[in-house]
Amino acid sequence: MHVGFLHHRQQRLFRPAAPDSTTYRTLLEINPATPDGPGDAMAVVRAGVWRRSSVTNTAEPVVLDIDATLVEVHSENKEGTAPTYKRGFGFHPMLCFADATGEALAARLRPGNAGANNAADHLAVLDEAVAQLPAAVRAGHRPGESAETVARAVVVRADSAGCTAGFVAGCRARNIGFAVVARSNKQVSAAISRTFTETNPDRWAPALRPNGEVRDGAQVAELTDLVDRLPAGFPPGTRLIVRREPRHPGAQQSLFPSTNFRYWGHWTDQDGDPVDLDASMRAHAHIEDHIRRLKDSGLCRFPFSDGDANRAWLAIVCFAADLVRWFQLLCVTGHLARAEPKALRWRLWHAPARLIHHARQDVVRILDGWPDAPVIIAAHQRIAALC
Length: 387
Fold this sequence. Notes:
By secondary structure, the protein is of the alpha+beta class. About 35% of the residues lie in helices and about 20% in strands. The protein is built from 12 helices and 14 strands.
């Protein structure tokens, strides 16, 4: 009786939810076109959220980040799995996020042996992400559309897997700017070596941290004029921006062999100061945080053997993550506005409270002294204002 009473009270507060078994059977009936409906609905809601949020309601370019991640699966019975390059087994989904908000705009479920530098997959996930943007933002950014129809700039960032002629040419065909991590090759190495003998004292400028402060020992330079030729297939106007910083233990691979510096760079078609472009490209690392949030929210748990059902599961994980991000954007302030899922679960979703009925109203009484009670109350007030 006590459990039934609590269940009844929770239904009054949260509305009835489908049992787990019903949800499981529903997902097994999914076909490849099914997620399009919920995806379209999410795009409509997303447009409203972007209109209300100060983070997105600006004239600044919309920055998208693409990356792939490995998801280990401990079963060979799941459709679409395969060995990975790290000698594991599972999936290798490719994801695209909006940098300003952390929203998972698009995700494609791929087998574990899918290539990281597959230009077709990059462009497919980019098109799906653009379709999720508000109409005023995505205008002019679909294949074949005229640059004259662009109302707001879109820039996509990717690691070295996106450093392919097919991907950057596809971005240009969509009127989308690009910034991709440079790969080591003869042209890049030669350009860096030429900086040792040139007489231009202003070539290298101090690099900046994300907060705008100078990073000690790190410098940035544009080396476009020192490159013999652009990589094959890269569009005119592509620039090479290189950053060097003192080597440290565990430093990743460098573009140029040096005992003093680690060299890192990227190709881009964006205008602006090289130092600012470097700082912007370094912010591509935000995608690691976004992927970690998805992995804490169900990305690592593909529960079905059927491939279509697992693709639907991936879409649902992204939808749920976006709902949480919208809540944080519109209803929460302070450090909890950027908090990880675990922090939100234990500080907000699992906050102890009592549901009582008084004066024909249901009243939620938060535990006395709960440290985040003011945040919960403020969030509830903002939700009421939005409604």
